[in-house]
Amino acid sequence: MKVAIVGTGYVGLVTGTCFAEVGMDVTCVDIDQNKIDNLHKGILPIYEPGLDEMVTRNVQKKRLHFSTSLKESIQGAEVVFIAVGTPPDEDGSADLKYVLAVASSVGEHMQHPLVIVTKSTVPVSTAEKVRKALQTQLDKRGSKLDFYVASNPEFLKEGAAIEDFMKPDRIVVGVDRHEAEDLMRKLYKPFLMNGHPIYFMDIPSAEMTKYAANAMLATKISFMNDIANLCEIMGADVNMVRKGIGSDTRIGTKFIYPGVGYGGSCFPKDVKALIKTAKENKYNMRILNAVEEVNESQKEVLFDKVKAHFKGDLKGKKFALWGLSFKPKTDDMREAPSLVIIEKLLNEGASVVAYDPVAMHEAERTLGKTIEYSTDMYDSLNGQDALLIVTEWPEFRAPDFNELNKRLTQKTLFDGRNIFDPQDMKKLGYNYYCIGVRTN
After folding, report:
1. Has residue 439 got a pLDDT over 90?
2. What is this structure's pTM?
């Protein structure tokens, strides 16, 4: 089967590469010539574990191709995926100009019947806008070609995207014609061999499913952070509470870890977009408004602990910060809590030396020279007044405390991800602060 993927960002590149991995002929299209040139050289625009090796393998097997020409790439294809960005507008709504531009271009150049699939995260009713954009171009040409629109939202976790695609929890497909369902079932057959479920539904339900899923996960995170803050006030231990409620199968253990708030390209954007969609339809998403409010305030909790420890005076203080990306196993800095924490420290007259295993380049693009960057986690500690841990990278879980003791000017650690046990840290002589546990 020949497949065209429009957009070579996170979703498009992972989707195209995984389809190629099971033997399909895939062309990934992008208007950015530099990005396409780099992909031909094996230079990826994103960091995702294992993706570079998979891309190289499938390019060598001539199953994966990259192009700037949509017109050429869709010739002979059976299905075209739209996987371009939907950045939030100032009012929180998803900007669909790139999605609709692709739809118009497909309508302008298609020469045979196609299934056009929205893979980008889009609000309910986007498929109808895509359909209209396609039909408008066909009408201009006087063409009677058939086409079928479908919705196929992605459920990829950054850092585990390949595993998620190759062994999906579920595949959701929205269709309104049996021709589209037949083709999408054929397309995903290689991924269903081990019993992974595929759910066909109407298109609006598929579009809503993506937003509802991310909104639910964001809600669990904000709920747990709210509980953590109350635990700390009341003298309870949120780590114990988490275990106590996580053992309930109705709740489960995932996404109930307290911390410094969620970030990334999905949760913040999708929560805002769903709130905006509801508002446009005269409905108030009361829970999601609270979820967003809690998350924004949670990004300041670790800073507040820092300021309280130093009695409100941070001028001239020096801090090491471990973890810049919004989560481990990615270089994604979008809406990262570290950005809020760093900004507040700098505004108080403090300085920051940061270390992250993979996100240093992305961080520098955002923060510039406002902070220092260290290529070694221990070197970042030299002469610093305290250490802040913001992202729970595995290499931070068991550091050499002898090195910390030698390099920090005082034994003070602010743990934004509850990596360490407070009693262990007390025995080591640390001023230790975490989330949801009264430690000092």
Report:
1. no
2. 0.91
